[in-house]
Amino acid sequence: KTTRASVQEPSVYPLKPCKADTAPVTLGCLIKDYFPDPVNVIWHSNSPNMSTVNFPALGSELKVTTSQVTTKSKSAKTFTCQVTHAPSGFNSNKTIKGRPSPRLMPRPQKYEPRGVNTYLIPPSPLDLYVRKAPKLTCLVVDLESKENVTVTWTQEHRNPAGLAAQSSTRHHNATTSITSILPVDVKDWIEGEGYRCSVNHPQLPRPIVRAITKAQGQRSAPEVYVFPPPPEEENKDKHTLTCLIQNFFPEDISVRWLQDEMLIPNTQHRTTAPLKSNGPGQGFFIFSRLEVTKAHWAQNKKFTCQVIHEALPEPRTLTKTISKIPELDLQDLCAEEAESEELEELWTSIYVFITLFLLSVSYGATVTLLKVESCTSVGGSTPQTLHDYANILQTRA
């Protein structure tokens, strides 16, 4: 099963001392393995005098935090730790019966060993279809140290999978993460080859194994829309361009921005993680946000949102360009040119028809006149029939 860093509800554990004899009473709640921040912790109790402390969350990926309550009462009281996590819709109550105890230490790692988590990240469409150099990433987090940790790769139809590059990072919360990157073949991945990442460490009861393959399901190409800065930013030094990409599947997608056909560094724009669309479909949507200077926007610079997704036709990219003065769309321009050519051909045909018609009429009139003149010149006297008719009239008279 593929594991990805996404919204995850927390696990909640009540904390109380094993034995104690004196007041004050201090109890705690350990909240761990959730993402993203924040969680909300509320304590409920019948104790009249109590104080609560919520400690900052730790962890670069899955989070861990603690909340503690202290009361001066020596008698046993009931305390309820209510934890809510809005992103996952989580709501839980843990009830603890208090006893006199020494103060608990605030750091949860002193009492609850930090769990090791592993995530397998698929190739980005940018690496797969544009750079033609796809890679899988196996990320191991929340390690105490990098010592004695082994990460191995296997391929479904070929073992071993190949040579992987491995690196480690020490974090400010005293944990270590290990990243193992495996180059894969473009054809193998596209055709559905499976891969496994196995993590072994002396602290683990058994190896952690994560498997991944190309996502299954009906492919759906993204729809891309680019929006200009809102009117409220007209007088600000920075303008915001927004690219909406929606109704695509699978969720793996890459977005780049260009200015006048030059690539803009990734550090200058931000793209959200894919979110599930509302409704019965399986599509996803994301937003990408680019900040540009007021001067560049006023100079009519062209900004392009480029989307790479496997459901798009070759070369698997779709671009939408925007500027302060919008340009005529190329398809509209071609359509107008085609209509203009058709209209020109029609008028040409009409001109030819009218010309031929006039020539025909002129020719007919000319021939008729020539015939009349010919008849007049040949018959200089009155025809015989007319003479006879005249004689008859004279006799009767």
UniProtKB/TrEMBL annotation:
Organism classification: Eukaryota, Metazoa, Chordata, Craniata, Vertebrata
| Domain Ig-like: from-to ranges | 10-97, 102-213, 222-319
Q: Which SMART domains match?
A: IGc1
Q: Which parts of this chain are annotated as the region Disordered?
A: 90-111
Keyword Transmembrane helix recorded: no
InterPro entries associated with the record:
Ig-like_dom, Ig-like_dom_sf, Ig-like_fold, Ig/MHC_CS, Ig_C1-set, Immune_Resp_Modulators, Immunoglobulin_dom
| Keyword vocabulary terms for this entry | Immunoglobulin domain
Show the Pfam families listed in the entry: C1-set, ig
**What is this protein's record name?**
Immunoglobulin heavy constant epsilon
Q: Does the keyword Lipoprotein apply?
A: no
PROSITE patterns listed in its UniProt record: IG_LIKE, IG_MHC
On the tree of life, the source organism's domain of life is: Eukaryota
Organism of origin: Peromyscus maniculatus bairdii
Query: Which Gene3D superfamilies did the record assign?
Result: Immunoglobulins (2.60.40.10)
